[in-house]
Automatic annotation (TrEMBL):
Domain SCP: 44-156
Domain of life: Bacteria
Species, as recorded: Maribacter algicola
CDD domains per record: CAP_bacterial
Source species taxonomy: Bacteria, Pseudomonadati, Bacteroidota, Flavobacteriia, Flavobacteriales
Alphabetized UniProt keyword annotations: Signal
One Pfam family from the record: CAP
Region forming the signal peptide: 1-23
PANTHER family assigned: SCP DOMAIN-CONTAINING PROTEIN
SUPFAM superfamilies: PR-1-like
Protein name stated in the entry: CAP domain-containing protein
Amino acid sequence: MKMRLLFAIPVLFVLLHSCTAEPLQDDTIIEEAQNNAFLEQEVLSIVNDHRVSLGLNKLEFSEIAYKYANKHTDYMIAKGSLSHDNFSARASSINSEVTVKMVAENVAKDYDTAMEAFEGWYQSSSHKKTMEGEFSHTAVSVKKNAQGEFYYTQLFYQE
C-alpha cells in the first residue's frame, strides 16, 4: 500500500505542475480575432449612431464590403502604412458582385479604440463626409500588426 501511495504522489505532483496558465498560441490568436471583431462592431455602431443622430439611415453590414476591407487592411499592414492604393480595383470588385452607384472608404491607423478611430475620421472633413454620405451598406476591418498597431478600413457603398 505504501509503495503505491509513494508512486502516486510524484505522478500527481508532475500532473498538477505541468498545467500552465499561459495562453496557448491558438488561444492568443482567437482572443485577438475576438478583440478585432469587437472593434469592428463598435466602429459600425458608432458610425450608425452618428448617422441616426443626423436623421440619416443606418448602414447595413455587407459581407462583400467586409471581404475587400479585410484584404485592404492586410495590404496596409504588409506595406507598413496607410493607403488608398488600388481603391478603384476594390470598387470595381465590389460592383462585380453587387451593382453599386458609388463606393468610398475610410482608413486609419494607431487608434486603440473604436471611438478614437471615429473621432479621427470625424475631425477630417473628407472622412466625415464619407461617414455621412448617401450610402446603404458598409463593413469595417480592424487588424493589428506585429508591433501591436491597429489598422482600420471601412468601405461604404450605395446600391
